[in-house]
Amino acid sequence: MADKAASKKMTQTQLVAKLADACGVSKKVSKALLETYAATAVAETKKNGQFTLPGIGKLVRSERKARMGRNPSTGEPIKIPAKKVVKFRVAKVVKEAIVPPPKKK
């Protein structure tokens, strides 16, 4: 049976504490760094359409075209308007570290 503590997700407070310990800075500095990093990622993605998180992946803004869809309850055709969406593309190194590719025979 798996340990419950090991299966819980890391909180922001835990991440801030881990960064502070690893970098030898205070939690206040660590939290400020994390908040600035997130704000920079949002601003750059909004401005340039993409932002690379080194060693992790890339935030990419893309546009979806308008299309026809169906109302699932009535079956009536509806027009779905075009919109902008944000996607996250995981780096190949990270993907292979988390989910190793199957070995070829």
From TrEMBL:
Gene Ontology molecular function, alphabetical: DNA binding; structural constituent of chromatin
Location in the cell: Virion
InterPro entries: Hist_DNA-bd, IHF-like_DNA-bd_dom_sf
Domain of life: Bacteria
BP terms from Gene Ontology: DNA replication
Signal sequence coordinates: none
Subunit structure: Homodimer.
The protein, known as: Viral histone-like protein
Organism: Candidatus Tanganyikabacteria bacterium
